[in-house]
Amino acid sequence: MLEISNLTKRYGSDAAVLEDLDLTVEGNSVVAIVGASGAGKSTMLRCINRLVEPTSGSIKLNGSELVTLKGAALRQARRKIGMVFQGFNLIDRLTVMENVLAGRLGYVNLYQAVTRRYPQADIDRAFALLERVEIAHYANKRADALSGGERQRVGVVRALMQEPEILLADEPTASLDPRTSEQIMRLLQSLASEMSLPVLINIHNVAQAKAYTERIVGLRHGKMIFDGAPEDFTKEALDAIYGGIEAPDDQLIETPASGPRQGARGVAHDSF
């Protein structure tokens, strides 16, 4: 369980990027975080894994307070927080397998990390996960030879190699074409269910958020102004979050081509 209480983040004397944010995520929930650029979506995710230091507030993961951790304790906690990035963050000159095994760096000693001599159990798990996301045949291929969707699948597997207790995805589909982005959203949805893993997805495409997640959280100017089920995310909620501005992309309020939402309820949701 993720429990965020009164989370605030300021940079110097500027206005708060996040202000008194409260959020609880349980079980294998897939939660979309939506909002205009600058709303605080990425900052929130980065506060959770401490890539950004919160100004104040509490962040607990399965009862462990993350905000006060330092040194070795912080490194150990980060092992349990998987992160999927918009820009993939792969090492292009390394193979898919080497990139995936980088997810185990927090578990191996310095010699194993430098020489990339990982335990056989880690290698076996990497192959199994690559097979699960249907790219095991690329295991020995350089990362820079893959398509965007394939690279993002590598990023997802690398995060899962950490054996995380939560998965954070920061705009995981922003660099992908519409069809591939839906494939990645379906994959994240399926993995959350299979692994009983809570997933937080920072996303601009509200149509995909409605189709592939169980809950939508809307931020504006660092404050939460919507928290509810996709079917409750109305045109009024959209206007409140984005301030009545034009939709950030042409897919924002359209139902994805795949139509039905594949979540636990298995119910299709109409567009606005």
UniProtKB/TrEMBL annotation:
GO cellular component: plasma membrane
Upper classification of the organism: Bacteria, Pseudomonadati, Pseudomonadota, Gammaproteobacteria, Oceanospirillales
Statement: the UniProt record of this protein carries the keyword Translocase: yes
Membrane-protein topology: Peripheral membrane protein
Stored PANTHER family: AMINO ACID IMPORT ATP-BINDING PROTEIN, PHOSPHONATES IMPORT ATP-BINDING PROTEIN PHNC
Entries under Pfam families matching the protein: ABC_tran
Matches recorded under SMART domains: AAA
Keywords: ATP-binding, Cell membrane, Membrane, Nucleotide-binding, Translocase, Transport
Domain ABC transporter: 2-246
Keyword presence, Lyase: no
InterPro entries, A to Z: AAA+_ATPase, ABC_transporter-like_ATP-bd, ABC_transporter-like_CS, ABC_transpr_PhnC, MetN_ABC_transporter-like, P-loop_NTPase
Positions of the UniProt region annotated as Disordered: 253-272
Cell location: Cell inner membrane
Protein name: Phosphonate transport system ATP-binding protein
GO molecular function: ABC-type phosphonate transporter activity; ATP binding; ATP hydrolysis activity
